[in-house]
């Protein structure tokens, strides 16, 4: 993909879950072509420094400012890469960028704007265990920064009752210490206490840890911001292995088929 030098561009790039080998070639090419790199500082830090690349790292929670900054740079003719962990469309920068475009100056719509997908945490975590998301599943962010907590619980209840496996992003932070406990308590009202729950922390990074628990055990298990939680269904299976984390899979078929 060649781009005219006179016109700027913005590419929102998914960096994958951590291991640089999980960055797509296409994402790497977008990073190599960038003149400006914008993102939350741990993600910017994952991209090697090189001559001709200006790094603009920012704090978390300023996504819209970051998006506008990227678009302004592109208008001035720069080639900008906005980076997110995992996939940029999953609770990350891509939606913030398009929100800025929708509400911003008309000229932003004419810019060359692209999204480079990445391997989202949910898929990297699931792959470690086997196929816990092998049937129907959904993904939810447990953060109530951008939506009311009542909406989070209503959605959780609907997915538990419908029999989806659920990937929970943003399960906990110092500002949101109690939400995960409530979510697991709600799960325990609807699902069997033996339902497998996976706590996958820092998947594909050097400090990775993955635990397979029952729903009953999960309610007291520690988690942090680098943790993703996969809650299985009533049909999710465990295959025990001597001295190793069990395989976990959710069968593709559902009773009646
Ligand atoms: N865009 C990212 C998600 C951003 S939300 C993606 O597609 O993966 C941030 C949340 O993602 C974290 O709180 C955590 O729940 C999860 N997460 C991101 N990277 C992770 C990793 N390597 N291992 C486990 N969970 C991760």
From TrEMBL:
InterPro entries: 4pyrrol_Mease (IPR000878), 4pyrrol_Methylase_sf (IPR035996), 4pyrrole_Mease_sub1 (IPR014777), 4pyrrole_Mease_sub2 (IPR014776), Cbl_synth_CobJ/CibH_dom (IPR006363), Precorrin_MeTrfase (IPR051810). Pathway: Cofactor biosynthesis; adenosylcobalamin biosynthesis. One of its GO terms (biological process) is methylation. SUPFAM superfamilies: Tetrapyrrole methylase. It holds the Pfam family TP_methylase. The keyword RNA-binding does not apply. GO terms for molecular function: methyltransferase activity. Keywords: Cobalamin biosynthesis, Methyltransferase, S-adenosyl-L-methionine, Transferase. Residues 10-218 form the Tetrapyrrole methylase domain. Transmembrane segments: none annotated. This is Precorrin-3B C17-methyltransferase. It comes from Methylorubrum salsuginis.
């Amino acid at each position: 993909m060649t781009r005219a030098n006179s016109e700027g561009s913005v590419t929102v790039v998914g960096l994958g879950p951590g291991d640089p080998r999980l960055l797509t070639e296409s994402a790497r090419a977008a990073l190599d072509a960038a003149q400006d790199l914008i993102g939350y500082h741990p993600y910017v830090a994952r991209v090697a420094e090189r001559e001709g690349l200006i790094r603009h790292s920012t704090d978390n929670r300023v996504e819209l400012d970051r998006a506008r900054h990227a678009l302004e740079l592109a208008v001035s003719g720069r080639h900008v890469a906005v980076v997110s962990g995992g996939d940029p469309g999953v609770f990350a920068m891509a939606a913030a960028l398009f929100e800025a475009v929708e509400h911003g100056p008309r000229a932003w719509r004419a810019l060359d704007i692209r999204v480079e997908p990445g391997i989202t945490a949910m898929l990297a975590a699931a792959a470690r265990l086997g196929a816990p998301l092998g049937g129907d599943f959904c993904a939810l962010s447990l953060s109530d920064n951008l939506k009311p907590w009542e909406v989070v619980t209503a959605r959780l209840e609907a997915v538990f009752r419908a029999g989806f496996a659920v990937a929970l992003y943003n399960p906990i932070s110092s500002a949101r210490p109690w939400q995960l406990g409530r979510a697991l308590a709600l799960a325990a009202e609807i699902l069997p206490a033996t339902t497998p729950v996976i706590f996958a922390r820092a998947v594909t990074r050097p400090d990775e840890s993955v635990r397979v628990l029952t729903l009953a055990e999960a309610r007291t298990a520690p988690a942090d911001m680098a943790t993703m939680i996969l809650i299985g269904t009533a049909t999710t299976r465990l295959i025990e292995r001597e001295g190793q984390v069990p395989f976990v899979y959710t069968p593709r078929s559902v009773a009646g088929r």
